[in-house]
User: Fold this.
Amino acid sequence: MDFTLSEERRMLADTLTRFVREKYDLPTRHGAAAMEGGFDPEMWTRFAELGAVGALLPEEAGGFGGGGEDIMVVFEALGGGLVVEPFLATAILGATPLIGAGKDDMLEAVIGGALHLALAHTEPGSRYEMSRVACQAKGGKITGRKSVVLNGGTADRLIVSARASGDEADEAGIGLWLVDPKGPGAAMRAFATVDGGHAAEFTFDGAPGEPLGDPEGGYAALERTLGRGVLALSAEALGAMEVCKTLTLDYLKTRKQFGVPLGKFQALQHRMVEMVIAIEQARSLTMLAAGMLEAPRPERERALSAAKNIVGRVGRLVSEETIQLHGGIAMTWEYAAPHFAKRLTMIDHQLGDEDFHLARFMTLAA
Assistant:
């Protein structure tokens, strides 16, 4: 398999990485996260103008990318700056179900940065089971609850998973519905998350919904949407891990103990080597998942679950090693390391943690 990026993707990676490094420092990130919606609308517009949003969507949706490598390039750059703008919520989880659904005008607005979307799928008690949907869709009206809807408080439209038929855990009978979060029958409570993001809880009581495709056959589209989200999170984690590695290595080279740099101690050298090897293993599986994004379902889903599992395990290792090797400075708000550690911890719990994806991988491989 050829892992060399095309010229266009290298240019995109260089542009985004440079922009994040020069324009998105830690104080900027904190300021954006503290805004009412949890991100800076002006910064979101600038990202859109750079083509970062369009790169996540295919040509048939008005974008110029949308493949696994495009997602990996964009989200690794975003992870390196802990970017809080709603790329995952809007451009991946929100926009993917609209592709091929006759919503070209909405997709155009997303690419231009003018429209915000959110996927309302997780429910209280559902954990990570994709098919466990209790929310009901009867006669075009949505009734039920959705929890931890990323950037739900700023979404102009919601894509809601709701059941038209079948039992609560059945794959059949689930549809995806377009819902106005500010319309009748919809109530919301927004909140900040521990890693600097924002989410919302929704209660629907007969909220009007427009079906996206078959109102009872939306599970395949839902699974594909969440799969693209898994790849995005895995790539974002890689970007965050690389920064943790660099911060820790620089600290060990400059911080002295007993008159010599910490990096001279062999035990700490071994720990750094283990961290680097683990990150490279996570990168390899994430690259495999990116390359398998258009493969048949069994191969695609196995690769995605394998990537998310190792990213969760390695993310925890990198977080713990970064904090321990830095000592007390790694617990201060002004320093970057703890914020990267928190984000890596939260990534493991989004769209299925390492245990869930290990079990899913084994089920798919059986």
In short: The chain has a mean pLDDT of 93. The chain is about 50% helix and 15% strand. Strands lie at 117-120, 136-138, 141-150, 157-163, 174-179, 186-192, 198-211, 256-257, 260-261. The two ends are 25 Å apart (CA to CA).
